[in-house]
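Researcher: We're reviewing a set of sequences before deciding which ones to prioritize for further study. For each one, I'd like a predicted 3D structure that I can look through quickly. This is histidine kinase. If possible, include the structure in token form so it fits the rest of the review sheet.
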Amino acid sequence: MKLIYQHMLGFLLIIVTTVSIIGYAEINYISNQAYSQNYKRMEEYASSLGEMAASNERGGTARLNSNFLNQLQFVLQGDNVHLRIFNNQNVQIYPKTRDNLQLSKNVFNTLSHGQEIRIKNNNKQDSYVGRSKDAYTGVLVPWLNNKKLIGIIWIGSRVKNVERPIYMAKHNLLNALIVTLIVGLILSFILAYYSTNKIKRLSRATNKVAAGNFDVQLPHKDSDEIDQLAGNFNRMVRALKKADGEIKAQEKRRDQFMADAAHEMRTPLTTINGILEGLQYDAIPEESKPKSIALMRQETKRLIRLVNENLDYEKIRSNQIMLTKTKFNAHKVLNDVQIQLKQNAEKSKDKLVVESPIDLPIYADRDRFTQIMVNLIQNAIQFTQDGTITVTGKRIEHGTTISVHDTGIGMNSKQIKYIFERFFKADPSRAHHGAGESGLGLAIVSSLIRQHGGKIEVKSKPKEGSTFTITIFDKGYEQFVAKKELMG
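Model: Here's the predicted structure for histidine kinase, in token form for your review sheet.
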């Protein structure tokens, strides 16, 4: 069943149930009121006749002779009221019958003690006064004089006359129910259409998103839960659009990496293959063989570095490495890295400077810290030609910061946004400057810093250079610690 019909059915059920409950209560109230008023009216008639029967004037009951009662019955008949009178011996004295009709002993005893009996329908209840062609409702009232029973009167009227207002109420209720159903059907359709139309719009928008359209946005007023859902949907689509853009950018960088990796691997493999062929066919002079073998080893190391960087990144990214963190002097590590990369800096006519206190304590994995600094400084060398690279270290509260500043080509805001992404190259031509052509160096640095519970920041402007600042906190003050990290 469609949702609009479910909503309409729900609204109609609520309306019908409400009207039925109210109608039942109203009919029950009218029924009780009708019978209660009828009983009261009959009791008033009976009481008036009882007073006449108990009067001592002119012999008391002599006033209730047959002629008087016939005349009274004739008058009351116009009001659909009928009566029967029994004497104190439980014999019906009016109207006269051939058989001496009597009330049952239980009923007579009850009446003898001054209690009245109300009969709602003489054809349905116990036949106190006998059954009749037309159903009657009325009262049996004892007449007492000084607590002495002098007679009993049954006075009643036809049930159909008493229930006439009940029939009218039922008829009016039925008409009201029909009108209510018609109006309710129209209103429920309008309300259901209003609600389901919002859901239909949301469903159509969802289908568009599923088809790859992330520009869908739903107008909403935040007036109900569906509007709130539409707002959440809009935020979700914007997030998906952003994620899709990042995924496409990642795919593009990966494709570029694969092309670059294939190119970079082809060159050393071609070199190695050429040298091996030359050695096989003695095409290389004897005095050139040591140089050729050295070149082959250099190219082999280059291939190994490309493979190791990828494997290293995957291990770091998936928290498969274990950090052995200790407290050591970072100044000595920075000096060692300066010596190690001094030759690379000189090739680019760069000056590599280390500025830090002689005693610079840091709490980290020494080997991984060395790897971080090598990657950061090597990255600075790649982008700096005939400039200066300054490595500055200092202590802060509960931690140590190391910054690597270069006077190279710098980066724009878009490049800064993706600089720590895997395979990203701020300048694709940087492969010509030496090592680091895989595009994984800064991604590895970022992952290692995060596993150390530290943070990394970058500031850069085009043609003004870049500054990478890492912060590694002391033991017990780490942030962003990976769950699988084993701390020393």
